[in-house]
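Dear colleagues,

As part of the handover before I leave the project, I'm documenting each prediction I ran so the next person doesn't have to rerun anything. This entry is a single chain, and its sequence is reproduced below.
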Amino acid sequence: MTDRLLQRRGAGVLLPLFSLPGRYGIGTMGAAAYRFVDDLSSAGQRYWQLLPLCPAGQGNSPYQSPGSFAGDGLYIDPQLLVESGYLQPSDLDLLPCGGDDRVDYPAVRRGRQVLFDRLFDRFVRHIPADFDCFCQSQADWLEDYALFCALSERYGKRFFLWPSALRQREPSALERAAVQMERRVLYHKMLQYFLNHQWRALRAYANARGVYLIGDLPIYVAPCSADVWAAPELFMLSPSGAPSRLAGCPPDAFSPTGQLWGNPVYNWSAHARTEYRWWVARLRHALHWFDALRLDHFRGFAAYYSVPARAKNARDGCWLPGPGLSLFSALQQALGDVPLLAEDLGFLDDTVRALLSDCGFPGMQVLQFDFDSRDCGGGAVCKPNTVIYTGTHDNDTLLGWCTTAPRQDIRRACAAYGVRYPNQLPRQMMLSALRSPANTCILTVQDLLGLGSSARINTPSTVGVHNWSWRMRPGALTPDILAHLYTETCAADRAERSNICRI
C-alpha cells in the first residue's frame, strides 16, 4: 500500500499529537487519538499528518529535539497504562487538571515525572517479556540516547561541558557511567518501550480504517542532542564539541539580519564516506512509525545556508552545496521507493527545482502564499504531483491570515475566489484545495473549525508559550463539520469510499 501513498487522489488533516483534547494536559496516544482517527475515516479522509513525535527541545519545539530517533514520553497515555496493569486508577490523580486550551509544559512535565517514577517502580518488578527484544531491535540508537538522557540529568544538557572523558566518549568512561546510572538508563528505555507499544497499536488501528499517518522529518538536529554526542564526526563542530557553524537563512523581507536557527550543519563529506549510513538508519526508523514522511527544508539538501557560530546574526553566512542526488540515491538503494514529500517552500533556485525533479517527490503548495506579497514562495501553479495545503504549522490560520495579511493581498484573493468579504475566503480556499488537481490535499483542523490567529501552532522566529501549545477542545469536530467535510471530499473525488464509516 505505501508505494501508492501520495500518488493518487486523497485528502487529509494536519493536527499535531499534542493538540488532541484530553484530561492529561497534552494530547496522547489514548482515546482522543482513536476518536480522531474515527472522525477522519467517517469524513472520507485518507491521511493524518502530524509534526515530529521526538522529544521537544528549546522553546518546546519538536524541531530542536535532544534525540531525533526517540519519541516524547509526554505522549504516553496514562489511561492505557492503567488498562495494562502498570498503574492504578488512583495514580492518575497525581496529574494536574486543566490545559484544555494550551499545553502547560512545565506543569505537564512535573506531573509526568511523578507518575513515571511510580510506573518505573512497578516496571522493574514486572519487566515485560518482550522488553529485551525491543531494546535489542533499537540498540543502534537507544543505548546512546538512554545514556545521554541519564548523563544530561547529572551534568546538564550541554554535553560539550561534561567531563572530557564522557564528552569524548572514551569507552571505559562510558562503561562506568552505564553501570553507575543503570537505573536511569533503564528508566529512559522504559519510556521508549511504552511509547513504541502504544504508537504501533494506534497506527495499526488507523491503517485498518483506511487512514495513513504522515510524519515530519526535521532536516537538522539540536546542538545538545544524543545525535551530535554519539556521532560528532557527522557535524561541523569545534574541538570542544560545540557547533562551529550553524544553520539558518539569509536576510530577507521578513528579517534584515536573517535567521540563526542554532542547529549545527552537517559534515556532508563525512556522511558521503559512510554512504549516508546515518540517514539510511534515520529514515528506516521513521518509516517504522509512519506511512509517509515530509522532508523538512528540502532546499537544504541542494544547498544550505551556513553561518559561523561566533556570528551575531546571519548576515555573515554563505550558501554551500548540499549532498544533492547522491543522498537520495543511497536512500533508494537501501530502502527502495519510499513515500516522501518535499517541503520546497521559501527561496528556491534552479538547483533545488532540478533536485526535486530528479527525485520525483511531490512538492508542497500553500494557498496563502499564492497571494501573500510578504512571502517568496507563492504563485505556484498546482500540479498533480503536489501536496496542497491551506496552511502549515508555521502559518497563521486562514481566518487569522485574512485579518493580518496586507489589504491588497486580501483584495486579490477575494477577486480570485469570487467572494465579496474576507471572512468568506477560508471556506472558498478550502474548497479550492480539495478540488485542485493536486494528488493530495491537507487541511488544518483550525481551518475546519474556523479559528483565528490565537489557534496557530507556531510563529516562526519567536519563542513563547503561544508556540507548540494549542489544543483542540473536546467535541470541537462536530458531526455537522465532519458530514460537510465528507460531502466536499466526495465531490472532489478524494474520498476512499470503501473505507468509510458513514456518520
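DSSP finds 19 helices and twelve strands in the chain. The radius of gyration is 23 Å.

All the best with the project,
I.
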